[in-house]
Amino acid sequence: MASTLGTLFRITTFGESHGPGVGVVIDGCPPRISLATSDIQAELDRRRPGQSRLVSARAEADHVEIVSGVEDGLTLGTPIALLVRNEDARPQDYAEFGGLFRPSHADYTYEAKYGIRAVAGGGRASARETIGRVAAAAVARQFLAAAGVEVLAYVKRVERILALAIAPGRVTRAQIEANPVRCPDPAAAAKMIRLIERVRKRGDSVGGVIECVARGVPAGLGEPVFDKLEADLAKAVMSLPATKGFEIGSGFAGTLLLGSVHNDPFYMEHGRVRTRTNRSGGVQGGISNGEDILIRVALKPTATIALPQETVDRAGRSATLRGRGRHDPCVLPRAAPMVEAMVLLVLADHWLRQAALAAAQVASRPGRRAPRRR
Amino acid sequence: MASTLGTLFRITTFGESHGPGVGVVIDGCPPRISLATSDIQAELDRRRPGQSRLVSARAEADHVEIVSGVEDGLTLGTPIALLVRNEDARPQDYAEFGGLFRPSHADYTYEAKYGIRAVAGGGRASARETIGRVAAAAVARQFLAAAGVEVLAYVKRVERILALAIAPGRVTRAQIEANPVRCPDPAAAAKMIRLIERVRKRGDSVGGVIECVARGVPAGLGEPVFDKLEADLAKAVMSLPATKGFEIGSGFAGTLLLGSVHNDPFYMEHGRVRTRTNRSGGVQGGISNGEDILIRVALKPTATIALPQETVDRAGRSATLRGRGRHDPCVLPRAAPMVEAMVLLVLADHWLRQAALAAAQVASRPGRRAPRRR
Amino acid sequence: MASTLGTLFRITTFGESHGPGVGVVIDGCPPRISLATSDIQAELDRRRPGQSRLVSARAEADHVEIVSGVEDGLTLGTPIALLVRNEDARPQDYAEFGGLFRPSHADYTYEAKYGIRAVAGGGRASARETIGRVAAAAVARQFLAAAGVEVLAYVKRVERILALAIAPGRVTRAQIEANPVRCPDPAAAAKMIRLIERVRKRGDSVGGVIECVARGVPAGLGEPVFDKLEADLAKAVMSLPATKGFEIGSGFAGTLLLGSVHNDPFYMEHGRVRTRTNRSGGVQGGISNGEDILIRVALKPTATIALPQETVDRAGRSATLRGRGRHDPCVLPRAAPMVEAMVLLVLADHWLRQAALAAAQVASRPGRRAPRRR
Amino acid sequence: MASTLGTLFRITTFGESHGPGVGVVIDGCPPRISLATSDIQAELDRRRPGQSRLVSARAEADHVEIVSGVEDGLTLGTPIALLVRNEDARPQDYAEFGGLFRPSHADYTYEAKYGIRAVAGGGRASARETIGRVAAAAVARQFLAAAGVEVLAYVKRVERILALAIAPGRVTRAQIEANPVRCPDPAAAAKMIRLIERVRKRGDSVGGVIECVARGVPAGLGEPVFDKLEADLAKAVMSLPATKGFEIGSGFAGTLLLGSVHNDPFYMEHGRVRTRTNRSGGVQGGISNGEDILIRVALKPTATIALPQETVDRAGRSATLRGRGRHDPCVLPRAAPMVEAMVLLVLADHWLRQAALAAAQVASRPGRRAPRRR
């Protein structure tokens, strides 16, 4: 189950960083949804490395193939398998690390767990594993878009450079894609780019915070008590590499407020229940309340750096690791589409779960007949 | 699945706050573990309200009954059902709220989702639902203790009062239980108590941060890629009421460091791979590395306050809510055992998953015979 | 997961035969369905022993309590916990078997698996475990009935006595309940009763075949490829004690026909696709086709008999088992409600899964908005 | 979940009969098991069509590619993705059926469920979907073999021709593979072949019974109460196309015996508990008892025939279907490896579940330390 996520919209990813390929099987996508290879390719292109000096130089085209589940541009309701071949695999770049555990990587823990590991590029622990997630999320986006749900993630902070001029309720994808750092505050973006350049030259790395907003989510998504919407969002984003923290709504800062200030008063607007503030972040008691869902994710500075580091090898001998290989001085620009992907996947799953509940309520009333395709 | 958590150590909770009772079914507990009612009762006593002025005055004895799965003080390997009767249910206290949506509670969202709800005390959204979790965690603690794993949670911060004099590697349960606020830093605890008293008199509430350490966790727990240990921990604690954020290791603060500072260097100690720092929080690549696991959880100020609040009723009419009923001015002292419970449940599940993997590796070697009970 | 069944309508049973009680937690029942204790009690009364000389003399009232999930006679959408106390537990009746493995019972295999077992009455292997299933099925029946689905099981054969005068399409519950053997063919029923009486006097036992029909099931239930409707039905009934075989439609006898004879021709009737014959048993490719679903289940002769039997004890010493205790000379009359229960549970689950799919198809069309409660 | 099977050894199949390819992702295979492409290819070769006149003439090489989870011939413990390209897809052969529902096929029910379907070759309902199952089972066989478990399936009956000269305890794979009908009783095999030839010439089809034995299964596999070993075996084989019935041990015939005859007496042999007869079929109370596991599966005559048949088209118009395309006059020779595959998959899963339980029992004893890789 470790490589599977979701209840009704279930994805299973597979593939090592430097093996034949990576991919995903999506089980539970509704039938008769329009889906073209280009819908998925567009998302993969945002995720892939080599887009600018800011991120890893690995040059992968990452061409996706739809292996099953789609015919004549429409989903069949059967499992959708998506495959991306690894083309620029260079296992030899990693040969020298073979016996050394890279600090704050998964080398040692994989070894401890499995007694074996795909050394090159971290195997499954590589960010390359997220290709399957981003591809699956492109499918989720297709049917969530039809339902009026929009999800956007962007870089909110790099190290100490905080982007303040962003209104989550109105930010657009064009604003996010306007610069290579994916920060829709142009002034902050410029500073972030300069910082990342500086850090890259020193062979070091920086981290920061991604913010993600989901707009148009209807009230009612999320399942008490363990599958609360914020719980599933937390799990989903914390399953991404390099994440160290998760917040929803007021988050950690909200703990500094009094209850009388923190509570979100209800009022009516155009016949709809609204809240005056949104410290809840769009979720109350684990269920969406119709306001924007707003989360933030902490990403540590990239573990791969060019500077020498103290470590040990498999045999337990002290050693010094001297980095080479390709790496990102700052993972955040590429992490934004990944966070977006995880939020899309969680919302798609809960959207289907709520659709199921709503249908069951209607259909189980006396006098109703069974569910029928319309 | 919404009320079920875990893969191999699975719990399913049930019960409304003011219905006949609450409880849990545990499926997957190993057989022949010593288990007495008193083991569970002791944990429930820590969780229950009415222990001091700091928390809710609801006076529940919360007597637990083992309904199944145990005979002569030993677990049978079959489902363990635990039941706690609701005794001090006072639905009339809540009658007046009937039509009003309490701000930042789950009233509106349950109504939006189900079209019906157990009005009194929030039904399943009540903290009373956590009785089943804490009871199940008491069982998990029994067998994790035998394996040398210890989990302790305590109050790290209330509003702005931060407890600095705590060493997660050495803190004891006695220190935590030494004061009603469950903060093992006595000076900070005294300040916290005064603050909570002050806030209670004003009819207001405060939030803060719980920290939780797990010691003695062997390397190898956690499953890539979605069931990473930190991902499952995040989900588990974010499924508790009132949580707004989750961190592991360096958390959000870690994003301010350079990679060269943030990485945890490896070294050998007594033949074991160790890290010099623990910014990873005991987990790398989703798998435990043998260091202490350290997490922090943000809890918002309690939503239930005595001050008047703006809201609407079911019919969409503006209204003012005036609190009465019993409530906690600060949920943190009682939340510490809940966070501890969630961490225990996640570790028990992953401990069994890793035991399964280890057994499979051994047993699937040529020449080995099938698994046998010893 | 071993004690949990279902995907969207999930049940978890608990309880040993001679422990404090047995029961079930149902997670996934839609909200706002009318549910009274009497709805469940009526089904338990059909299942329980002591109804006639034909079945076990254990005198249990089997009073069910709804512990959670229902308020004012309506389901809340939250887990429904149902509890039945064990009242006529007589562990001493079983004391003498303590060390002996009863042939064709689960004594030896439980011991081999767990190294411990609830000796009295077989613990979880007892037919008493099915109380939880029958209680949960009573809830499933409530909402399936509203959707026009009716499920009836009856005794089709006892040993060699075959009931031929039964039309699955028209049989009624009244006909089934008209005699203690639950065979709606009165002439066959009379013979069955005489046979069972005879066998009981000799201290022996007999088996036979239960047939079960589900009428009013709409086309579209069942999920390719592993959760085919017949696959889930097979698993569900084969999880009942004493079952040795399962058939759907033409079953084993169908293997004697040529394809040209066996195939069910399609034709139209009142604008609906029908089949002229029903050798498919209402399911094609794992999905219901709108015809009656018809299955048969083989039940072995009860393992508990009064005659002496060769066996061994825990220490591996040869021994002779001499039965006492209470037992059924023929389990079939009581097994009919159990088979009915399992079919109801599977249909409820797949009905909700299909409702979910249908809702997703509708809602994911462009221009549609998200699912809403109506 | 519909395309996923298993709890700890989980497989997810994907692919349509005439799309780009078919395959499987295996999650939960233990690490460091030797696995070569040829191990899998050998099993696929047994399953594929075109091996003799007796089966479908579709000429597919069915070359399997290991896309992930294996490095240098050893499993990594990560998901193993296996892919087989469709090469001899001839969708045009099916064009003429486009609008017609083939009797006793899944055409109508897929249409009813999804409102869309992959017309050519039945899409997911095709026997081609089983490629993924057989490939996954080849992996399961690798580690079960190391544990001393052997699984063999063969043709027991074709229409009325019953193979009597087979001893399940001693039958070999060589005997099974000695003739194209996969019946290890040579005299019966010869008659079966003649019958199938005759039926093929008439454009008709026949069905029959597959028997499958699992030898060397240790006592203790299977989980009460719903995941009983026979229940999971029943589900697994009933999820294969064309299956109409399932039996274990004495099966339907056992219902004709008295309990005193049917019960399997226990005795000791070389310090091991054995049964004198094996009417239980190797499973008691849902748990293996160490005897051979013996099941039988009824397969209907192939639905695809060359003779004209009454049917309707999508628009509800009466029509006559005249078969063409490639088909099997008797599916049984190819079904034997499929049944074998399903039994292997179930045993692998339960073997891991029992290994997990055994490990948990050992490790949770006081004084023990946590699970470690050895």
What this model shows, in words?
- 4 copies of one chain form a homotetramer.
- Chain A has 374 residues and is of the alpha+beta class.
- Chain A contains 9 helices and 18 strands.
- The first copy, chain A, has helices spanning 37-47, 92-95, 107-114, 130-146, 173-177, 186-201, 229-238, 259-262, 332-363; strands at 4-5, 10-14, 21-27, 64-66, 70-71, 74-75, 80-85, 150-158, 161-162, 208-215, 243-248, 266-269, 272-275, 283-284, 287-288, 293-299, 309-312, 318-321.
- In chain A, a hairpin with a 6-residue loop joins strand 2 and strand 3 (21-27).
- The first copy, chain A, is globular, with a radius of gyration of 22 Å.
- The model of chain A is unreliable at 366-374 (pLDDT under 50).
- Chains in contact: A-B, A-C, A-D, B-C, B-D, C-D.
- At the A-B interface, strand 1, helix 3, helix 7, strand 11 and helix 8 of A face strand 1, helix 3, helix 7, strand 11 and helix 8 of B.
